[in-house]
Design goal:
This protein is mostly helical. It has 15 helices and no strands. The radius of gyration is 21 Å and the shape is globular. The protein starts with a helix and ends with a helix.
């Protein structure tokens, strides 16, 4: 779809740089078939990564005293979203270890969950917070038959206490960011103020929808969107503040405006096709396979939430993070299925 859009809209060659990285990731499938990933390596590396992300965020915020963790090393929003994903993965792995009665690893993974969430909070990237209650609810729901009600009450209470405690620390800015979001929404809808973070997003979404109405099939292309948004600002259809942005801060609307309905369908395809694979694989009675399936579903669902307020795939970090883990989880399920059949 990117190639078709590039040809139709006569885009710049740089537009193909980001999507081309997916092609470079595909040989990993052959590599993982030849050199299979060990399940335990996956279980240990994810929570360790989550702890590291949390420590980096603490270092950035409290030692370097930067306003947003991970910045300018990586875009703070992207870093915060990835940190939240690692935290959610760690929760899945914690419940796997608990079902195996490996309590030391369970505790470590629960700590890793909090570190991942802490990394997201310290990035002040609110988009990563929106889906987390739904993702946590899904994870707990999937393990409801293997764990006692008492456990859910305890773990739920501990997580609520931990999150509230983290939120109340002034330097995390969680409460102030939530209040700011509320004030920005009021300012936009009641006072027509668009020169705020949320206000600018609402204007960009309006801009993208208006563009999609004019060219619904193939959209405007990358350069066409930039020029059209400037024109909209000049004609006072949207606030001049947003004329400088080259994407809509919503992946779905961004693809719709740049590549039309066909582009939006292509985006949904790269999300829903692997999701369908993981859902089909969830019928397995093998605990290890089911755990990887849940990791895959959590991964895709989280990215779908991130896409609501951020162009997650417009950045190299988002593309590589999403597609690399899709390949890893897919290869892991195939490996585990093969071992299960041989046994």
């Amino acid at each position: 779809m990117f190639l078709l859009s590039f040809i139709v809209h006569r885009g710049n060659a740089s537009e193909l740089d980001n999507p081309s990285r997916l092609i470079l990731l595909l040989p990993l499938l052959l590599l993982f078939y030849q050199y299979q990933i060990r399940f335990k390596v996956l279980l240990y590396s994810i929570p360790i990564g989550s702890v590291i992300v949390g420590l980096v965020a603490l270092y950035d915020r409290f030692y370097l005293n930067v306003p947003r963790a991970f910045s300018p090393r990586i875009m703070a929003i992207q870093g915060g979203d990835i940190a939240m994903s690692l935290g959610m993965f760690s929760l899945v792995i914690a419940l796997y270890f608990l079902s195996k009665k490996e309590y030391r690893f369970t505790v470590f993974c629960l700590i890793a969950t909090l570190f991942g969430m802490l990394g997201s909070f310290l990035s002040t990237a609110r988009g990563g917070w929106i889906g987390s209650p739904f993702i946590i609810g899904f994870i707990l729901f999937t393990y409801r038959k293997t764990l006692s009600k008492r456990f859910f009450i305890i773990i739920g209470s501990l997580m609520i206490i931990s999150v509230v405690s983290i939120s109340l620390i002034p330097k995390t800015q969680v409460i102030s960011r939530i209040n700011l979001a509320k004030n920005e929404m009021v300012a936009y809808f009641e006072k027509d103020r668009a020169n705020t973070s949320l206000g600018a997003r609402f204007e960009m979404w309006k801009s993208a929808v208006l563009m999609a109405k004019e060219k619904p099939i193939l959209g405007w292309g990358q350069q066409g969107v930039i020029e059209k948004r400037k024109q909209q600002a000049k004609e006072k259809i949207i606030h001049p503040t947003v004329a400088r942005f080259d994407h809509a801060h919503n992946q779905y609307l961004d693809d719709l405006s740049k590549r039309g309905v066909l582009g939006l369908l292509a985006l949904l395809g790269i999300l829903l096709m692997p999701l369908w694979f993981f859902i089909k694989s969830s019928k397995s009675h093998n605990l290890e396979i089911r755990s990887v399936v849940i990791l895959g579903i959590v991964h895709i669902s989280s990215v779908m939430f991130y896409n609501l307020s951020q162009g997650f795939f417009t950045h190299n970090s988002g593309n590589i993070f999403y597609f690399f883990l899709i390949i890893v989880f897919y290869a892991m399920i195939k490996t585990l299925n093969l071992k299960s059949e041989n046994n």
